[in-house]
Write a structure and sequence with these properties.
The complex is a heterodimer of chains A (114) and B (113). Chain A is mostly beta strands and 114 residues long. Chain A is built from 1 helix and 11 strands. Classes of the chains: A mainly beta (114), B mainly beta (113). The interface between A and B is medium-sized, with 27 and 31 residues.
């Protein structure tokens, strides 16, 4: 089955700086890659996703890049703010999130230092 | 639209008991997936239901089962509870098509004593 590795497990950055979280996946058939943000005691919330026919996607301060050849994808957050502090999870799925279930990375605890 | 809801939010059980958790998807969504979240193993996929049929299943023992009703609401059952079943159980709904985004519920925190 699919295996997703996520690094780093903890990331501390100064407010205003950029943060980058990286994930690799094992199954070349995976074609849907969402990123979820989970604040303490709350549900995971989708922040951005990318599909295999796209190499990069941006939404304001958040961007995701995908390299299908190398089987890795990354989350980039620019101009970090205190409210960005949370655990971020990457995930991968074949055919899409509905049919096959999401395989998640172990998460990255992002800490924004004031 | 109202979001995904789960009941109960908290549950305490003892070893050997069984438990049933409920998930109501976003209106119009036909797919419900279940995940187990623990500090050690992270988020793990249990199974997914679409139109009352299980479409996919993760690597969990047969003690974990589920079902989906005609209104798309889903239940998950765990029999013969073990201490290791203590976790946050999350359900997620989506319209059900390939590539659809999954939206998570708040979860049910299960503690097994």
């Amino acid at each position: 089955g699919e295996n997703v590795e996520q690094h780093p497990s903890t990331l501390s950055v100064q407010e205003g700086d950029s943060a980058v979280i990286k994930c690799t996946y094992s199954d070349s058939a995976s074609n849907y890659f969402p990123w979820y943000k989970q604040e303490l005691g709350k549900r995971p919330q989708l922040i951005i996703d990318i599909r295999s026919n796209v190499g990069e996607k941006k939404d304001q301060r958040i961007a995701v890049t995908l390299n299908k050849t190398a089987k890795h994808f990354s989350l980039h957050i620019t101009e970090t703010q205190p409210e960005d502090s949370a655990v971020y999870f990457c995930a991968a799925s074949i055919t899409g999130g509905g049919a096959d279930g999401l395989t998640f990375g172990k998460g990255t605890h992002l800490i924004i230092q004031p | 639209k109202a979001g995904v809801t789960q009941t109960p939010r908290y549950l305490i059980k003892t070893r050997g008991q069984q438990v049933t958790l409920s998930c109501s998807p976003i209106s119009g969504h036909r797919s419900v997936s279940w995940y187990q979240q623990t500090p050690g193993q992270g988020l793990q996929f249990l199974f997914e239901y679409f139109s009352e049929t299980q479409r996919n299943k993760g690597n969990f023992p047969g003690r974990f089962s589920g079902r989906q009703f005609s209104n798309s609401r889903s239940e998950m059952n765990v029999s013969t509870l073990e201490l290791g079943d203590s976790a946050l159980y999350l359900c997620a709904s989506s319209p059900g098509g390939h590539g659809d985004t999954q939206y998570f519920g708040p979860g049910t925190r299960l503690t097994v004593l």
